[in-house]
Amino acid sequence: MPYISFLVFVVITSFTPGPNNIMAMAFANQYGLLKTIQFCLGVGIGFFTITGLSCFFNVALMNVMPIITFPLTLLGVVYMLYLAFKILTSQDTDENSPHSLEPKRNFLLLGAILQYVNPKGILFGITVVATYILPHYSSNISYLLFSLLLGFVGILSTFSWALFGSAFRTVLTTYRQPFNIIMALLLLYSAFSIIVH
To answer: What pTM does this model have?
Structure first.
């Protein structure tokens, strides 16, 4: 296996702006780093399962992909547009207020489910498996270890973006509206790039 090429592909794909990283930064800014860790763990679980499924069902997925590509892409784009709208229209929350309007969200579940409507994540899983893993490994242990590795990378990438959102929380709170506009525009860009790609 060309390990350097594999690592470069994984790092660039995982750490560049995308729905996971943008949502992690926005959640950390709005709800704090501790609550966002659940989202990051959910992303890792989602990446783990996507990679594992890609390993074990690669041939079947490649045969089905032409059929499910358009609906999956459409669903992912619609979800990204919804997330952009929610970020753009989010209101300030006072965490210390007992009457905080913060919704009771299961960030772990949200992070995991997002992977199943995230075309970038699914295509990443299929690509990394088909290009780097299956040509060089054939054991179930290998598939499990690579799935764990990619799940861990998913946690690291979203956590790094969440850390940025949390570290600059005071600044971002002061400029919440411009920040929300930028985050929404980045999600719109992600959705647009999926459509034209």
So the answer is: 0.74
